[in-house]
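Encode chain A's predicted structure.
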Amino acid sequence: MTPPQENEPDLRTRLVDVGVELLAEQGADALTLREIARRAGVSHGAPRRHFPTHLELLSAVAHRGFTGLAGRVTSALGDGGAPPRAQLSELSRLYLEFAFEQPGMYELMFRHDLLASGHLRLRDTSLPLFGVLVELVARVRPEADARAVAGALWANLHGLAQLWRWGSLQLATGSEDFGPLLGTVLDAHLGPEAGR
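Encoded structure for chain A:
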């Protein structure tokens, strides 16, 4: 196998691929231009041809995560025929599963201290996902400020994901199943589900 050429048109994609792999293995702190170049088999200056700043490379890697999460959401929600509460439950479950399966990517995607969210059009991918959440909340709770409720729900899900990944919630609740906690989170923000 020949090493990638530094002017290769697909080198940009390869650098992002390597960044995604490194992120999965070692977390956001390992994402340096130098280490990504080393793993891609190019000189340490080669990434700067495609990513003049470290921020641009981090944003490109995060964009890959947002695109993947958006694909999961689109696939899971399908034609939107399920009741809005069921769709919110599925969207929340997907969000948590993504956080558990790809903790490094999940952390990077929401680290605005590391990313400029408007950079490389990240907002074009991240804000529509939040928009789906807002739209579903508005259908479940038409009397409420849907954006505020969606923000609070998202923050609660994010906290649940972090505390679960750290093992804190399992210790505190004595449960190894996040399902009941998710149900409680949804009830807290959307009101109790009928028939519960």
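Residues 62-190 form a domain with the Tetracycline Repressor; domain 2 fold (CATH 1.10.357.10).
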